[in-house]
Amino acid sequence: MKDFSGKVLFLDRSDINTDEIIPAKYLTEITKKAMGPHLLEDLIMDGFDPQTNLDGIRVVVTRNNFGCGSSREHAPWALEVNNINLVIAPGFARIFRQNMFNCGMMAVEISEKEVDVLFEEYADKETTILTDFDAGTFTVSADSKKTILNFKISSFDAALVKAGGWVEYADENY
Amino acid sequence: MGKTTARKIFDSHCIDSPSEGIEVINLDAVFCHEITTPTAIIDLQERGKDRVFDPSKIKAVIDHVTPAKDSLTAEQGKVLREWAGRQNIKDFFDVGRNGVCHAIFPEKGFARPGYTIIMGDSHTCTHGAFGAFAAGVGTTDLEVGILKGICAFKSPETIRIKLTGTPSAAVSPKDIILHVISTIGTDGATNHVIEFTGSVIDAMSMEGRMTVCNMAVEAGATCGICYPDMTTVEYLWPFIKDEFVSKETALNEYRKFLPDTDADYAKDLKLDLTSLKPLATYGYKPDMVRPVEELSGIKVDQVYIGSCTNGRIEDLREAAAVLKNRKIADSVRVIVSPATPAVYRQALSEGLIDIFMDSGCCLTNPTCGACLGMSNGVLADGEVCVSTTNRNFNGRMGKGGMVHLVSPATAAATAVAGFLTTAENL
Ligand code: SF4
After folding, report:
1. How many A from CA of A76 to the centre of ligand 1?
2. Per the CB < 8 Å rule, is B220 touching A65?
């Protein structure tokens, strides 16, 4: 199972699309690794610089409809090769969400309200999230602050994460 | 409660439910192109599983960058080509016979009512125009689809959108779907299937229905579906005439995929299109839409007519009708890309290619090309393109470029004026 804990990047915008996560011009690459340096390259957002802000990041917290647009699995791959295996948001585009779990990664939905609280209380701090997969909790912490959030994924999604992805799961079951 | 079209299709294809609300379904077709498939092929090879579930159910095309523009794209084509040969995939469309996936596959009769189809491409929802469940997926879903002929989905919930009224002749299917997206928003149908119905869809050609279903994903939908009717049967008749004794028999068979009258919808919407005007997008999201007349005057560097949304013969006819006996503005360059060789040939025989060339347009071979900013008309920083494609995302057609999505008629009118305008206002 992949690692779902570590330093958090807050992306305060809804509808971040897969072209912004990894631009189409890199789709000519056939290896996942080649995506690495180009993660979020085309994301234009006040105060965000892909060159410096991605350093050491392990988790992304963002707004609604993350990963909309193209079906390209290059988007999860670009995250994966940067050691980011977990994105938390109030909602995801269907294909992106499925691609994440298909790769044994996680796109976890929590409520809009909970996301608001994370942005309000943590976005301006150096924040980490500790994921307890079996208990279904995220422990969010920064300085002396700490918040524990419960999360729920379907037993199918959990099975994909445990198996390492859909290819492995399908191989065992079908 | 009765069943929706997607529910009926799932009922006839479901093989497992690994957890509540998740269904694994059998696939009738897996479509492939050279951008998202090679990674799946290479992964299968590395796993020692270089096989396909059924070569006759796999259709493949090189369409995104074709002819290859550099060594990397040549390699992608090569991986797909050699795989198609090795796996005995007969329906493989290489340079010269290739067209944009969501235009060429329906044209060949590969999408049928009641089918389940996946492809590693978000606009696979286009094929729902035939009454199929067709969904875009990522490379891993594609890989399992190729290997085992199955895919997992959430149980389909459906939004019904009834389109009624009498839209003016200036309004085309593209304006209609832009209106729908602006009404429900870019995540208005996430994880849902949309059934498009009503008198406007009933009167629409298959090509128009494909334009509408094509952009369902821009509202987040898994698939857009139109009910199979006589229009569907007429379009498919050359491919199904040996399977049915008459068109009526075919239609009767396909009717089993119509929703029950008491079908269970997550949402039921009704839009009257009588006062609809030609529309254009103005921002970086496809739901940022306004009447063209409110945006009129925006200066344009490039006009693009083509893609899986609007590169079919009816679209070229619509554009050519505006361009006939006119010249494009000196300040504009216009790129026309017929979506398939058959569309190209038809346009040639109808004299449309002459009209485009006489007015000053550049014609390209069928390809995705500029639609996703990979070749054949990439924008420079700060340039503005009025385009018949489906995505206006920041950087979509070239870093720093701005895209306004419009109908073919509006694109052609804009080409003549040099700024965003409608055909009526020329
Ligand atoms: S024409 Fe554009 S939207 Fe359609 S399949 Fe090609 S790249 Fe995708």
Report:
1. 20
2. yes
